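Quick illustration, no need to memorize.
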Amino acid sequence: VAPDAFRDQMAYLVDNVFETVDLYDLSLAITDKRDLPEKPVIITMDDGYRDNFENAFPVLQEFGLSATFFIVTQPIDDGNENYLSWNMVEEMADAGMRIEPHSKTHADLSIQEEEFIIYEIQGSQETIAAHIGYPPRYFCYPGGHYDDTTIRIVSDLDFWGAVTTAGGEWHGFDDRFEWTRLRMRNTTTLAEFADLVDPDGTLSGKRIDS
């Protein structure tokens, strides 16, 4: 998404009284029946590229919004200039952004041995925890690739949920390790964005006509 388009999208959310929540809020709403705002929205970004800090973060702060950044940790450890630095990660976390793991190297976790999967998931979780002060509890499958073994390991490592790249709007407890999202592309117009985030025609988040 181009920076100007992203700013227009965030302005739309504020102008239409949306409130950003995070995956922790979603889990508590599902398990403890805690209330969500009337028009909640969760903003997520994958990979941890530097433009998350340089372009997206200032806009989020300008509009008083928060987001969840799923980051790949090895490029940050290596000082790759295309990715965030740990100082940037810490600044974003201190400002109220959620920082969650997207693996160490962005490997396809659906075709790996169990030890490697644990290394990728737990390694990134522990590295992020060392920088934000608490263990992150949500995982994003690299490339959207995962299998039953991946889900079991994510659960065994005491994650509370995980997100995929599949499209969808309904989120419940039973599918908490396969939560869907709505993708915004660089071709998504503001009208299309508004239609995707519009809660009308839903009952408790689920389409009435489904």
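The mean pLDDT is 94.
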